[in-house]
Amino acid sequence: MLTQIKGLHHISSLASDANRTNAFFTRTLGLRRVKKSVNQDAPDMYHLYYGNALGDQASAMTFFPIPHARPGRRGTGEVGVTNFTVPKGSLSAWADRLALGGATDIAFGQSFGAALVAFTAPDGDSFALIEGDDPRAPWTGSGVGEDMAIRGFHSASLRLKDSGATRELLHFMGYQDLESNGAVTRLHLPDGEHAAIIDIETLPTIERARQSAGTVHHIAFAVPDLIAHEEVRKTLEDTGWGVTPSIDRYYFQAAYFRTPGGVLFEISTNGPGFDVDEDSAQLGQNLILPPKFEAHRDQIAAALPHMEE
């Protein structure tokens, strides 16, 4: 069993409009855009990162906006809901803010005893804000006060036709069953740090999701450093998982593999972080390119949609 994984690292989704995504996640949700870059495998597409002040582990929601992409189809084999932690007593204010900010399907509810407000973002992705005590310092520079600002990820849910093999994989990754509620089983990392919870929702009669705008591309799990990253990657490879070689994403080291239920997992290091190539006070303001693309900056910038700041 692996012991190096500490919780979620980031979650990356597909979107249809860079400006609409940017406005919703900064102005409505009050997150900081910590990086404005490009998809390192397709540099004619933005890669936008939103999180707390520095985009710390388990706070970064990232997007690949594909102009005019058709809506994805929700279903099984995907990340169903991404959950953020917010302070207790803030949900009513959040519901009002979400309604004014373009969210739909706003509904109060509970998740394993914790109060939440669920909502749908403009592209159709599902999110929830869950009340909780979270010591992480929030970003308050986008107009949301500390009394209600998002602290980071709380957890994420996986929607699967058959949960058995993926559940066994998560057990191998260090997760343990915590409790169940109907079709949902909650797993957690006993020694995890932040966002150390994964919920599995088993939906045997639901059709497979179709990935496009409004769906999660991959979910990433955090390890402390390069040594732990290679240990995890090699162990997964030796156990028979088709994990990729380690890939330098400049802000973290990454390796990917497809789970039995169809969800794409990534293993990511907690460093070097988003301030490795720009001053922390200026994060996300300028277009930052990986070094291999810098010689083509003018061509790349001209092909990207104009972003309103």
TrEMBL record:
Pfam families tied to this protein: Glyoxalase
Alphabetized Gene3D superfamilies for the sequence: 2,3-Dihydroxybiphenyl 1,2-Dioxygenase, domain 1
One GO molecular-function entry: dioxygenase activity
Keywords: Dioxygenase, Oxidoreductase
PROSITE patterns: VOC
Domain VOC: 7-132, 152-270
SUPFAM superfamilies associated with the record: Glyoxalase/Bleomycin resistance protein/Dihydroxybiphenyl dioxygenase (SSF54593)
Domain of life: Bacteria
Protein name: Dioxygenase protein
UniProt source species: Ketogulonicigenium vulgare (strain WSH-001)
